[in-house]
Amino acid sequence: MGTPPIMEGMRRPRPIGLASLLFWLACSLLTLMSIYSGTISGARAYGWIAAFALFGATLIAEMVMCVAEERSRAAGARFFVLVFSAFVMVALARGPAKYLTAALLTFSGFRLPILTSERGAWLAVGAIALLLVVVLLSQDGMVAALGTGSVITAGLVFAISFSQQAMRERTARTALAIANAELRASRELLAQNSRAAERLRISRDLHDALGHHLVALSIQLDVASRRAPELAQQDIHEAHAITRLLLSDVRDVVGTLRREVHTDAAALIRTLCRDIGDLAIHLEVLEGALLVDAAQAEALVRCVQEVITNTLKHATAGNLWIQLAPVAGGITVRARDDGRGAPLLEPGTGLTGMRERFAQLGGEFAVTTKAGEGFAVRAFMPTTQTPS
């Protein structure tokens, strides 16, 4: 519903947050023991504990709030806090604990592909590795600097490669989910249109073939009734009456087939609203409550499809709520997600097309969003049905 590229970020699953906390504690255990035993004390100990607490608080906040890792100022600030506090912990630690603490810098490798471009991520990895070598070289000498620096650099390379691959896989899965949703919508609409076309074909065949022959038969019977002997006229009149009755029935059937049958748009929409990947879709619609004509059904289906597609592409949401309800004079559509939102909405061709589609049917279509508050859709379509 905005302009960011597909799957620019991802939601951090809670198990990954727990694993991150365990890794943070494991890397900090030796230094905590050194502080407890008095090996590290004074300002050095207080400074290390402050950096340790800052690092952990950032991880805990991300886990508790299920913060979406995305390219934003907040995400950049969290990245800077983690890297800065990790370097402070490395600089203030002593002995083997220093090298174990340096492993915390690998956290940055997982975030870099999300925060910046691929080239920017590799440049940042080089800068972090170089700064680590400089810090270790100034404190522990060449051997420690090169040994620890090479190990941490390898960890950063692995982390950034893993994160890039995970993002590519998520993007591919999301693209496939979007394609499947669009295919389901098109399939259901095509089936509905095919049924309507078949009804029209049958009505034409009945009118052009059977109706024509019945009219001809009625005329022939009328002529025959005038020429036949008196004894046969009664039977001919009865046959003529039956023919007229049959012709009337055929015309009624043709008229019924030609009348547009209302479509249950709710049944079509339910096929779209299946959970897709990390997105849970919550649909609220009454059974059989959306009986509309073909054009209105297509507009409603396309509206829901556009909401789902844009939520998958741009919202970085875990939940999407969709409500369709009949009201006096029409049908309302409401949808909202729990994604990141956007400070400024820039409608693309999809949203513009939906607004035009609803306007052609005499309705309204609007999208609102705020940063951190997700996207919300409100639409109204006038119909001739009455709310149930």
Structure description:
The chain is of the alpha+beta class. The strands form 3 sheets. Strands 4-6-7-9-8 form a 5-stranded mixed β-sheet. A two-stranded antiparallel ribbon has the order 1-2. The chain is rod-shaped, with a radius of gyration of 35 Å. The N terminus is likely disordered.
What pattern of helices and strands is seen along the backbone? Answer: EHHEHHHHHHEHEEHEEHEE
The percentage of residues in β strands lies in 5-15%
> How far apart are the termini?
32 Å
Strand order of the largest sheet: 4-6-7-9-8
* Overall morphology: rod-shaped
- Helix tally equals 11
Helix content: 55-70%
Main sheet characteristics = 5 strands, mixed
Please tell me the total number of domains. Answer: 3
As residue ranges, the low-confidence spans are 1-12
Strand-pairing-aware structural class: alpha+beta
Average predicted confidence as pLDDT: 78
User: How many β-strand runs?
Assistant: 9
What Rg is obtained from the alpha carbons, in whole angstroms? 35 Å
Write the layout of secondary structure elements.
Layout: E1 10-11, H1 14-37, H2 42-65, E2 68-69, H3 73-92, H4 96-101, H5 106-115, H6 118-140, H7 142-227, H8 230-258, E3 263-264, H9 265-272, E4 280-284, E5 291-292, H10 294-315, E6 319-327, E7 330-337, H11 349-360, E8 364-369, E9 375-382
Parallel strand pairs: 4-6
Antiparallel strand pairs: 1-2, 3-5, 6-7, 7-9, 8-9
Helix pairs in contact: 1-2, 2-3, 3-5, 3-6, 5-6, 5-7, 6-7, 7-8, 7-9, 7-10, 9-10, 10-11
Short description:
With 388 residues, this protein is α+β, with helices and mostly antiparallel strands. 68% of the residues lie in helices and 11% in strands.
